[in-house]
């Protein structure tokens, strides 16, 4: 297998140093990525396989040491090289403790840089011998999505099959599962990624404006139409038009949408002239469209036009093994945004999150992590989580029992709580002592 050109990420708030490093490294036939801050470096690391990190130490907001510690924990096989203009013995020791392989002092020569980079890669090869071989790294990222569960893999496998064609796709799933992220992954990971991606929330557009907003209108088509105007279809020409909550589209819009899918042609409101369109349609819904068809609220012929390819996005409760990966993503995002540093979550707090059933899915998880970052001063622990998470317990499912049996069990629990005090138990149950005695008998 062929050797590949190594990817090197350079992080420095000094633009001149960045340009110098990039120029030297490119002349050595390396592929380079540049970041002027730790925040920018994290976004690159999230989406790109990096072979070597070269970072400055003294930077505003989050410094290079924190970046070293973070990459040492999350990318332990990746070698790290430090360049700095403020050398000191204590600083050098700290960088080596944080996982750096070598320490280069500014100013440095091209030869010194080449020697340090070579040393870093030799060190990396000792830790991972097949580093220079063309291999596809195991990754849990797909666009903005993260996961490693079986359900996540099923979704990404379908994305891989549809991303380079314009087949119509229907994405189904509960609210908060990330249906729009799936649509964006289809668009931005494929060969049409340079074309527009237009997202339309059908439920957010008043029914009387849906046609005009989608297909455009001509001057004088209705009161207030003072000029010709294009709609979302024209804006998405050559790219992807994403309909979120397609089930809320009016029947009139459904009819015109069906024609657009069949004939590849649309007509502006107030016009008799059709316009050719070349777009991919992706729709999403959290409703049961087959039930809507039975209720005459959704066209059956449109449903089958939309479901050329179906993607079922699993709820978070069915992919709980992905929770640590999602938490890491949100900690990185909000830690840098709110605290200007990288936060971590304790195993105990993570265990609490994995026990919860997540009715609001990924959107709810993101809100919880965002709140925890704001409320925490350091390591996020169980105490930083909302009370309803800390004290929730999942009981194993039991067979259904008669109401009388349930009542008996509850009375026993109350008596245990009051340590046999029947007066207190009667107060809690809001019955008198005689009724309680009858129930006990």
Automatic annotation (TrEMBL):
<dbReference type="InterPro" id="IPR025943">
    <property type="entry name" value="Sigma_54_int_dom_ATP-bd_2"/>
</dbReference>
<keyword id="KW-0238">DNA-binding</keyword>
<feature type="modified residue" description="4-aspartylphosphate">
    <location>
        <position position="56"/>
    </location>
</feature>
<dbReference type="InterPro" id="IPR058031">
    <property type="entry name" value="AAA_lid_NorR"/>
</dbReference>
<dbReference type="GO" id="GO:0005524">
    <property type="term" value="F:ATP binding"/>
</dbReference>
<dbReference type="InterPro" id="IPR009057">
    <property type="entry name" value="Homeodomain-like_sf"/>
</dbReference>
<feature type="domain" description="Sigma-54 factor interaction">
    <location>
        <begin position="145"/>
        <end position="374"/>
    </location>
</feature>
<dbReference type="Pfam" id="PF00158">
    <property type="entry name" value="Sigma54_activat"/>
</dbReference>
<dbReference type="Pfam" id="PF00072">
    <property type="entry name" value="Response_reg"/>
</dbReference>
<dbReference type="InterPro" id="IPR025944">
    <property type="entry name" value="Sigma_54_int_dom_CS"/>
</dbReference>
<keyword id="KW-0067">ATP-binding</keyword>
<dbReference type="InterPro" id="IPR025662">
    <property type="entry name" value="Sigma_54_int_dom_ATP-bd_1"/>
</dbReference>
<dbReference type="InterPro" id="IPR002197">
    <property type="entry name" value="HTH_Fis"/>
</dbReference>
<dbReference type="Pfam" id="PF02954">
    <property type="entry name" value="HTH_8"/>
</dbReference>
<dbReference type="InterPro" id="IPR011006">
    <property type="entry name" value="CheY-like_superfamily"/>
</dbReference>
<keyword id="KW-0597">Phosphoprotein</keyword>
<dbReference type="GO" id="GO:0000160">
    <property type="term" value="P:phosphorelay signal transduction system"/>
</dbReference>
<dbReference type="InterPro" id="IPR001789">
    <property type="entry name" value="Sig_transdc_resp-reg_receiver"/>
</dbReference>
<dbReference type="InterPro" id="IPR003593">
    <property type="entry name" value="AAA+_ATPase"/>
</dbReference>
<dbReference type="GO" id="GO:0043565">
    <property type="term" value="F:sequence-specific DNA binding"/>
</dbReference>
<keyword id="KW-0805">Transcription regulation</keyword>
<protein>
    <submittedName>
        <fullName>Sigma-54-dependent Fis family transcriptional regulator</fullName>
    </submittedName>
</protein>
<keyword id="KW-0547">Nucleotide-binding</keyword>
<dbReference type="InterPro" id="IPR027417">
    <property type="entry name" value="P-loop_NTPase"/>
</dbReference>
<feature type="domain" description="Response regulatory">
    <location>
        <begin position="7"/>
        <end position="121"/>
    </location>
</feature>
<keyword id="KW-0804">Transcription</keyword>
<dbReference type="GO" id="GO:0006355">
    <property type="term" value="P:regulation of DNA-templated transcription"/>
</dbReference>
<dbReference type="Pfam" id="PF25601">
    <property type="entry name" value="AAA_lid_14"/>
</dbReference>
<dbReference type="InterPro" id="IPR002078">
    <property type="entry name" value="Sigma_54_int"/>
</dbReference>
């Amino acid at each position: 297998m062929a050797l590949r050109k190594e990817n090197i990420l350079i992080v420095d708030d000094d633009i001149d140093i960045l340009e110098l490093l990039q120029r030297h490294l490119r002349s050595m036939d390396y592929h380079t990525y540049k970041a002027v801050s730790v925040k920018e470096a994290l976004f690159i690391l999230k989406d790109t396989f990096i072979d070597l990190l070269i970072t400055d130490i003294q930077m505003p907001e989050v410094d290079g040491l924190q970046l070293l510690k973070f990459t040492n924990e999350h990318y332990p096989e990746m070698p790290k090289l430090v360049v700095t203009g403020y050398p000191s013995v204590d600083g050098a020791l700290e960088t080596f403790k944080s996982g750096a392989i070598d320490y280069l002092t500014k100013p440095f020569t091209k030869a010194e840089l080449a020697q340090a980079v070579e040393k870093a890669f030799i060190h990396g090869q000792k830790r991972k011998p097949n580093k220079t071989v063309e291999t596809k790294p195991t990754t849990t990222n797909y666009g903005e999505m993260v996961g490693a569960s079986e359900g996540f893999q099923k979704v990404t496998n379908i994305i891989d099959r549809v991303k380079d064609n314009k087949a119509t796709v229907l994405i189904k799933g509960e609210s908060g599962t990330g249906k729009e992220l799936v649509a964006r992954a289809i668009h931005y990971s494929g060969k049409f990624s340079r074309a527009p991606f237009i997202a339309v929330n059908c439920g957010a557009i008043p029914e009387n404006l849906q046609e005009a907003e989608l297909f455009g209108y001509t001057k004088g088509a209705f009161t207030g139409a003072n000029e010709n105007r294009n709609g979302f279809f024209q804006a998405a020409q050559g790219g992807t038009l994403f309909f979120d909550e397609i089930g809320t589209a009016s029947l009139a819009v459904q009819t015109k949408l069906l024609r657009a899918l069949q004939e590849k042609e649309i007509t502006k409101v107030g016009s008799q002239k059709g316009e050719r369109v070349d777009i991919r349609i992706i729709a999403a819904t959290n409703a049961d469209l087959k039930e809507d068809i039975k209720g005459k609220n959704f066209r059956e012929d449109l449903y089958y036009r939309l479901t050329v390819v179906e993607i079922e996005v699993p709820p978070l409760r069915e992919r709980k093994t992905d929770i640590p990966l999602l938490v890491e993503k949100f900690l990185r995002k909000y830690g840098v945004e709110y605290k200007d540093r990288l936060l971590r979550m304790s195993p105990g707090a993570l265990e609490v999150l994995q026990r919860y059933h997540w009715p609001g899915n990924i959107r709810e998880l993101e809100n919880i992590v965002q709140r925890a970052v704001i409320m925490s001063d350091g390591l996020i622990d169980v105490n930083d989580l909302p009370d309803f998470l800390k004290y929730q317990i999942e009981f194993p499912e039991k067979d259904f029992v008669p109401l009388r049996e349930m009542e008996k069990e509850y009375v026993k629990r109350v008596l245990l709580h009051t340590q046999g005090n029947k007066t207190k138990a009667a107060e809690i149950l809001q019955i008198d002592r005689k009724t309680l005695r009858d129930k006990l008998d």
